[in-house]
Amino acid sequence: MRSIILKIIIKKMGNAIPLDISQHRRIPCYSLTSFEFEEKLFQIQYNPQEGTTEAAIIQEHLIALHKKYKIHRFEILKPEAK
Fold it and tell me: Which pairing describes strands 71-77 and 17-19: parallel, antiparallel, or unpaired?
């Protein structure tokens, strides 16, 4: 059995947080908006069949995760060797 750890950074759903310019000191812009991000880790375990690549496994999981989360960035982490 092989294992991949997928780290994704998601933009939390909900409205952006508008910040009043008076709350900031001398920032040259008309308005500021803040978004909240969250880090999630997923461990993918699989038994590869002939011709199945790690890239294909990751791609299918990212497609499924896009249906649930607004993914901002992702990273593949290698599991620690035992």
Answer: unpaired
From residue 35, give the alpha-carbon distance in Å to each of 53, 56, 61, 77.
35, 31, 25, 25
Distances (CA, A) of 76 to 5, 19, 32, 43, 80: 6, 34, 32, 10, 13
Residue 31 φ/ψ region, left for φ over 0, alpha for ψ in the -120 to 50 degree band, beta for the rest: beta
Domain boundaries, the chain: 2-77
Closest CA to 62 of 79, 78, 74: 74
For the segment 11-66, what is each residue's pLDDT rounded down to a tens digit? Answer: 877 666 666 655 556 666 666 667 788 999 999 998 988 888 889 999 999 999 98
Tokens for 51? 């011709």
